[in-house]
Amino acid sequence: MGTISPDGFLTLTDRAKDVIKSGGEWISSVELENALMAHPDVAEAAVVAVPDDKWGERPLATVVLKEGSTADFTTLRAFLQEKGRIAKWQLPERWSVIASVPKTSVGKFDKKVLRRQYAEGSWTSPGSDTDARGTARTPAYATRWSAPAYAARS
Asked: Where's the AMP-binding enzyme C-terminal domain (predicted)?
């Protein structure tokens, strides 16, 4: 997917399979990833679409924080909104801190793996009785990921 400038230049913005359709509007996962990786505490970020009862799909942001980082999801959301970087309606409501973003054999983010892990309920918050989807978790999920997840609705 892309845009054509008034001068006739084509700018590629995202892969068709990675664009998130939320409430009839399109959200670029690449735009969100680039904005998140501009934060000084974020080493890597991958954004995928996850099902949402109200909007059809919503973005799930998975981030790898730099060593010693104290950033939290409230800080990252505020950073995305600073100076109009990302519109409020595009902001992720579901977040997960992970140790590393899964990659394909050529080093690209493997978003299929992230979507599958989300669907399986792999991301959990320590001390929480629900997974990142908000559904009751089983004890097996509690040890699958060492990093916390966060599902906030605003």
From this structure: 31-108
